[in-house]
Amino acid sequence: MSHRHNVAALSKLLTYILVHRPDEFGLVPDHEGFIPLKDLQQAIAEEEGWSYVRTSHITEVAYGIDREKFELADDRIRGALHTVRYEAATPPQTLYYGSRRRAYPHILQRGLDPGDKQYVPLAIDPALALRIGRRRDPDPILVEINAQRANDQGVAFYQTHPLLYLAAHIPPAYISGPPIAEIMPEKKQHPRQWENHEEPSAIQELPGSVLLNLRMEPLRREKKGKTWKDGARRDRRKQRRI
């Protein structure tokens, strides 16, 4: 396929995502209809045959022959003059979220928050939830949300497109997932070499080595036993006195 055809095909794909079905790609536009360029590039590169796409290819289309179809602003892109309505919606019984492994214990304890986004995206399908999760962690954990019970007890859900629901916060009472011990085994603790400051039971002395007094005890000169030299010196002293 020539470069010209590549540009035309990418333009059609961008129009489909930005204007019609961003949810199919796990994307959530803001109130003005904008999607971050980086998020859009990631989603497109996940598609078969589109792994080569970079943000430069997207901006080439947006500023090229189809520039009237797209609008760029602050590293975000949308379909020209396209806005989105966030409507209150009643969710299905269960929704799904792909969690980073490092964040999973925090989620079970504190709940789900959107971070630097406005809402937490919750998918109606586990596969879509994991696809979104892999953008933050190559091996995400699938979290289930009891959305129906949460909604009945006052948690507000919104929707812009069919496959994703949005929430500002999901309390931990409505969140379930695999036990932490099964997916995040504790690291083995290596015993300290000298526990309680005890010296090793055996020290191997190598030729030419010098052993240090690790306890910093005062060194004492050991008393030497009497030798034949001591006796000889004593005899010489006696002979001088004669």
Low-confidence stretches: none
Mean pLDDT: 85
- Would you list the SSEs in sequence order as H and E? HEHHEEEEHEHEHEEEHH
CATH architectural type of the largest domain = Alpha-Beta Barrel
* Largest sheet report: 4 strands, antiparallel
CATH class membership of the largest domain: Alpha Beta
Total of DSSP H or I helical runs spanning 4+ residues: 8
Main-sheet strand order equals 4-8-9-6
* CATH topology title of the largest domain: ADP-ribosylation fold
Q: How many domains, as an integer?
A: 2
Taken as a percent bin, the fraction of beta residues is: 15-25%
Keywords:
single chain, 242 residues, alpha+beta, Arc Repressor Mutant, subunit A, ADP-ribosylation fold, 2 domains, four-stranded antiparallel beta sheet, three-stranded antiparallel beta sheet, 8 helices, 10 strands, 31% helix, 16% strand, flat
Architecture overview:
The chain has a four-stranded antiparallel β-sheet with strand order 4-8-9-6. It has a three-stranded antiparallel β-sheet with strand order 1-3-2. It has helices at residues 3-20, 37-45, 55-62, 104-110, 126-133, 147-152, 180-183, 228-241; strands at residues 35-36, 70-73, 76-79, 87-88, 94-99, 120-123, 141-146, 158-161, 164-167, 175-176. 24% of the residues are buried. The chain has 242 residues and is an alpha+beta fold. The chain has two domains: 3-79, Arc Repressor Mutant, subunit A (Orthogonal Bundle), CATH 1.10.10; 87-183, ADP-ribosylation fold (Alpha-Beta Barrel), CATH 3.20.170. The model has no long low-confidence stretch (mean pLDDT 85). A hairpin with a 2-residue loop joins strand 8 (158-161) and strand 9.
